Amino acid sequence: MSVSLSPAQSLYHFVVHLFPSYWSTVSHMISLSVISPTVPANIVGEGTVETIEVIENHTTYLVCPADGIPPPSIMWLKDNVPLLDIPYANIRELSNGRQLEMRNVQLGDEGTYRCQATNVAGQKSKSFALKVLGKSLGRLLFP
Fold first, then answer.
1. Rounded distance, CA 129 to CA 111, Å?
2. How do the pLDDT tens digits run along the chain, 143 residues long?
């Protein structure tokens, strides 16, 4: 048997010599594809609730350290409602969704935030309990 490869096309040409006659051959072209392995989405601290305290009118960041193969897409939710469904002028996603920046945080921003990482191999999530400290409490803690 002899095998040749056409690298540009990922085509293999197999030639098999049949016995008893060396002159009888079978030839076949096949195409092979390399399939990438998949690794389920993973988040450091998955399944936990991280408490974040921020002083009113300040900025804070929620970090969602997610990975996987292929890289997961990230969706953020507040109190189980996707953030994309409600316009928040003071919130934006950074680093392909792996960070949520919250500027000028107000008491109404308090709640449970969750990042959800999803790829073809699975889904994981991590929650954050955001506590907003009023200005007067913030001055006592950080004069």
1. 6
2. 554 545 555 556 556 555 655 565 555 566 656 667 899 999 999 989 999 999 999 999 999 999 999 999 999 999 999 987 667 788 999 999 999 999 999 999 999 999 999 999 999 999 999 999 987 554 555 55
Looking at the structure, do residues 17 and 44 belong to the same domain, yes or no? Answer: no
Same domain, 26 and 92: no
CA–CA distance, 89 with 138 (Å, rounded to integer): 23
Question: Domain span at residue 24?
Answer: 2-31
Q: pTM for the full model?
A: 0.70
Asked if 113 and 129 sit in the same domain, the reply is yes
Tokens at 143, concatenated? 């004069």
State the Cα–Cα distance between residues 128 and 143, nearest whole angstrom: 26
Total count of domains within the chain: 2
